Amino acid sequence: MKKTLRTIMMVLIIVSLSACAMEESGDKEPINSSSPSERQSQPDTKNKPDDDFNEKQDSEDQSPDNTQNGDQTSVDENQNQTGEQNNSNPSNQENNDSSGSANAAPKDVVDDHTSVEAVINKQRQLPSGYKPSDLTVPEVPFYFEQFLPKKQMREEAASHLENLFSAASKQGLDLVAASGYRSYERQKQIYQSNVEAYGEERANQFSAQPGHSEHQTGLAMDVTVAQVSFKLVQEFGNTDEGDWLANHAHNYGFIIRYPKGKEDITGYNYEPWHLRYVGKEAATEIYNHKQTLEEYFGLVPEE
């Protein structure tokens, strides 16, 4: 009898100890029970970078994709802008010194820099620290929602851009704004980044040195469309929107600032997306005579 009782007690003790062991191991289960490989594949949303650096950016943020025969595709402030122009690398190509005669002349500070007809290029720069006093955000669609400085333009230009977008919309066209005002410091960052990525000679074909960018005037706006994934690329010129702009922008005071075939004069590659406000009279004259801003004002660089 005693032997039977001892056996029963031993069994009860063993069962009790086993239960305790199971409870202990359960406390140590990881909060995330997925396997290491599964956990590694889960996206990290805690350190999400600023949206502005995940979307396309300013044309001068982009890098050229295809520069054969002056036909370069660009990529905007994000996709490579270092390259938005690499595969089209959305942000413009202006910069001081590139290739051709447009880069040889000495640089002058523009006296009439607040004029809507001011010519800013590789030879003519804005005064140090210049920032327009009448910047505002035009009521047009942008490819991003949050406020960024590049949404801004000077009041007169913004008002006419709204009229242009409205007219385009009535034609069933869906233009989207991408990049307007850009500060000296922002341009400096973009230019240096492009030089590091592509070398100075190539960067100068599409990126402006600080103080030489039209975007700093508040009179320029890069535009794009969904058809080219909202990038700033030369293919934009082949879209319905690009074709309409080339033939109607002057009616609203804008010109295509860097037209095809004029690279030696402007100093930059063809940019069908880069609109520059100069006023309706000047824009119409430039359009009718197939000129650049340099030709219109007799400021063609000497060879």
UniProtKB/TrEMBL annotation:
Residues 45-59 have a biased composition (Basic and acidic residues). Keywords: Carboxypeptidase, Hydrolase, Protease, Signal. Residues 84-99 have a biased composition (Low complexity). Residues 23-109 are annotated as: Disordered. Residues 151-280 form the D-alanyl-D-alanine carboxypeptidase-like core domain. GO terms for molecular function: carboxypeptidase activity. This is D-alanyl-D-alanine carboxypeptidase family protein.
